[in-house]
Amino acid sequence: xxxxxxxxxxxxxxxxxxxxxxxxxxxxxxxxxxxxxxxxxxxxxxxxxxxxxxxxxxxxxxxxxxxxxxxxxxxxxxxxxxxxxxxxxxxxxxxxxxxxxxxxxxxxxxxxxxxxxxxxxxxxx
Length: 125
Description:
The structure is a single chain. Helices cover 0% and strands 50% of the residues. With 125 residues, it is mainly beta. The strands form two sheets. Strands 2, 4, 5, 6, 9, 10 and 11 form a seven-stranded mixed beta sheet that branches. A four-stranded antiparallel beta sheet has the order 1-3-8-7, with no helix packed on it. A hairpin with a 6-residue loop joins strand 4 and strand 5.
């Protein structure tokens, strides 16, 4: 069983930056994909960006150029650096992992097997 623990987030002013981390434990394979998703109140969950152990990275259109996803495989840690944050980025951000998904599937309506509990990011204008 894979356990994911997110950290970071909090309240940030518009135009500011935030950094999220997700530490994974329990992987039984060296091949996996980790991704960030988010869900705003009253909205469906959406993919933010993901990376797999083959080195592929994929971003949602709104994250391109502002967000950076990175994976430290030695530490099993997924990071999300978010810059130029906007009020519409306010959401609960979730870390997810899956052995069979790829970074391409980090965006869109693909389910992942393992999920963290989420961390709130609130952007004030």
